[in-house]
Amino acid sequence: MAKAHAYTEATGRRKTATARVRIAEAKNASMVVNGKPAEQYFPLPLMLKTAYAPMQTLSATYTVSVKVQGGGLKAQAEAVRHGLSRAIAELVPEQRKDLKVHGFLKRDPRAKERKKFGLKAARRAPQWSKR
């Protein structure tokens, strides 16, 4: 007999950042990222706004616990947003449409292009000299 979880878990990704998000219903919204409050973990207000976007869009309150690794802080904030959106959609299926309209459920496929041989970067060719 499986024990019922008090939380819902989901994974969010962006570039090389991966966020494991756990949410539980609460009276007031709070977020802990890698053991620190989100306000302390994300240095810029824009990153904080990105991470909290799904809850603000739906006017919902959850206690959120996140383990995030890889990438930079901006990619991590977007990975948290993706994971949080997935978790909310799993917990409350009626809100899936609202999250989808804002583009929170789509994983951003953009990533760094690999370097090719014979070139200095992905597309940058060696400098050419006429003489």
Percent range of helical residues? 25-40%
Mean pLDDT: 94
Output the radius of gyration.
19 Å
3D shape: elongated
- The succession of helices and strands, N to C, reads EEEEHHEHH
Count of individual beta strands: 5
Strand content: 15-25%
Major β-sheet annotation: 5 strands, mixed
Low-confidence stretches: none
Report strand order across the widest sheet: 1-2-5-3-4
Q: Structural class, please? A: alpha+beta
Q: Distance between termini?
A: 79 Å
H/I helix tally: 4
Provide an overview of this structure.
With 131 residues, this protein is of the alpha+beta class. It is 33% helix and 23% strand. It contains four helices and five strands. The chain has helices at residues 38-41, 45-58, 73-91, 96-101; strands at 8-14, 17-25, 30-33, 36-37, 62-69. Strands 1-2-5-3-4 form a five-stranded mixed β-sheet. Helix 2 (45-58) packs parallel to helix 3 (73-91). The longest helix is centred in the middle third of the chain and has 19 residues, at 73-91. The protein is elongated, with a radius of gyration of 19 Å. The N and C termini lie far apart (79 Å).
